[in-house]
Amino acid sequence: MLSLENSPFFFLLSYSLLGAGLKYIDAAFDEKAFDKKVALLISPFLGVLWFFTMLIDSASAVLLSAIVLGVLLKGKIDNIAHMVGVFIIIFMVMITGLRVMPLPLILLTACACMDEVGNDIIDRKRRTRSFLDVFLKYFFGKRWLLKVAVLYLVLLGLFPMYLLVALIFFDESYLLVEEYGKARLKQKKQKE
User: Fold this and answer.
1) For residues 81 and 101, what is the distance between their CA atoms, to the nearest angstrom?
2) Could you give the CA distance from residue 34 to residue 164 in angstroms, rounded to a whole number?
3) Closest C-alpha to 50, from 78, 71, 74
4) What separation in angstroms does the CA of 183 have from each of 14, 31, 36, 149?
5) Which pTM value belongs to this model?
6) Tens of pLDDT along 91-138?
7) Pick from 138, 141, 139, 164: which is nearest to 151 by CA?
8) Is residue 192, in this structure, part of any structural domain at all?
9) Which tens digit of pLDDT belongs to each residue from 132-189?
10) For helices 8-26 and 80-96, what crossing angle results, to 10°?
11) CB environment 72-92: b (16+ within 10 A), e (fewer)
């Protein structure tokens, strides 16, 4: 029987689906690049997958909890599909009594929140060609602070290395769907 608990493949796939699904929902509601009905249909699936991924691995529980808390603290849960997904996650955590390591959770939540703040700042900031501006756009655009913190926990032996790779897959699939949504919007405008 296949055990998902220590299966790097499962985490790479799960995190990729979660990142892509989150951006699909964002792009459906914020930019209108995708169908809102589809976004509402996939949100419960994402909530269950998110929770299941937390349930089978304690390090993943910390990381995914930190991401949820970071966006909650920053006020990024701003549409009904995200609310449904977060409700499912919180409800299932409460029912099962899932526990997470508190100190890594605090560290990663702070980093996730700071990544969101940094991302908002670079979105509003006037672009220049200075190295610092380019670096900050890249660093917060790819939300590297959270990845650096996860690397730190990997080096301490608290997290497996494949979880860092899974987080990179999460962000890259998120960005891939973002680019696809932009291309769809551009194509839609050209047809009008």
Assistant:
1) 28
2) 29
3) 71
4) 25, 12, 18, 32
5) 0.91
6) 999 999 999 999 999 999 999 999 989 888 887 777 777 888 888 888
7) 164
8) no
9) 888 888 888 888 999 999 999 999 999 999 999 999 999 999 999 999 999 998 888 8
10) 140
11) bebebeebebbebbbebbeeb
Between CA 141 and CA 165 the distance in angstroms is: 17
Look at residue 88 and tell me if it is in a domain. Answer: yes
From CA 177, how far away is CA 23, in angstroms rounded?
Answer: 6
| Domains of the chain: total | 1
CA separation for the pair 70, 64 (Å, rounded):
10
Which range of residues forms the domain containing residue 156? 9-185
Is residue 3 in a domain?
Answer: no
Q: What Cα–Cα distance (Å) separates residue 188 from each residue in 35, 176, 185? A: 13, 18, 5
Quick check: 125 and 116 in contact, CB under 8 A?
no
In a domain? residue 132: yes
Six token digits for residue 157: 């032996």
* 1 pLDDT higher than 50: no
